[in-house]
Specification:
The protein has 173 residues and is α+β, with helices and mostly antiparallel strands. The chain has a single domain (6-168), classed as Gcn5-related N-acetyltransferase (GNAT) (Aminopeptidase, 3-Layer(aba) Sandwich). Helices cover 31% and strands 27% of the residues. The protein is built from five helices and eight strands. The chain starts with 5 loop residues before the first strand and ends in a 5-residue tail after the last strand.
């Protein structure tokens, strides 16, 4: 799938080193479970996660995160897409993580909007969720720009306090 500036494609095993380099930056992972300390585990995390992203597309539910490439350079910028939320609720989450060099250019919003559209148009999912650390104002703006609504109180999820966002598919008449 392509957007104005991005190519969203399946991950490949060859992406592991570049993905690890992105996740090794403390500022990139500071709002994720484990925080900035997880940057030290980036190589092992990428070696485990990239194959899981690949399997997600093949196995149930048949969707997952894409590798996000900058179209102009072909450089891996991170991941974006959908995942079946790991809490057993059956809900689908919009997620994205981009290298700090891609921040401030609207690329996370572009990728998240593509994931939203794929979820509603191609997969016909009834609604989406998203979780954001309360201090991650940039990520909050991304979800708001794609139409997601923040619920009124923070929740505990995956060991973090987070804001929960939701968006229901608008029925087509």
């Amino acid at each position: 799938m392509e957007t104005a500036h991005l190519r969203l494609r399946p991950f490949r095993p060859a992406d592991i080193p570049a993905y690890a380099a992105i996740r090794a930056k403390p500022q990139v992972v500071r709002y994720l479970p484990g925080g900035a300390a997880r940057a030290a585990e980036a190589a092992a995390f990428a070696a485990e996660t990239v194959p899981r992203f690949i399997r997600a597309w093949r196995d149930a539910p048949g969707y997952g995160p894409w590798a996000v490439e900058e179209k102009a350079s072909g450089r891996l910028l991170g991941h974006a897409g959908l995942r079946l939320f790991p809490d057993g609720s059956g809900e689908t989450e919009v997620l994205y993580l981009l290298d700090a060099s891609a921040w401030g250019r609207g690329l996370a919003t572009e990728a998240a909007a593509a994931a939203r559209d794929f979820a509603f148009v191609e997969l016909r999912l009834p609604y989406l969720i998203g979780y954001v650390h309360p201090q991650n104002h940039a990520s909050q703006r991304v979800l708001e720009k794609i139409g997601m609504i923040c619920e009124p109180k923070p929740v505990e999820v995956l060991g973090l306090t987070a804001w929960r966002y939701t968006l229901a598919q608008t029925p087509v008449e």
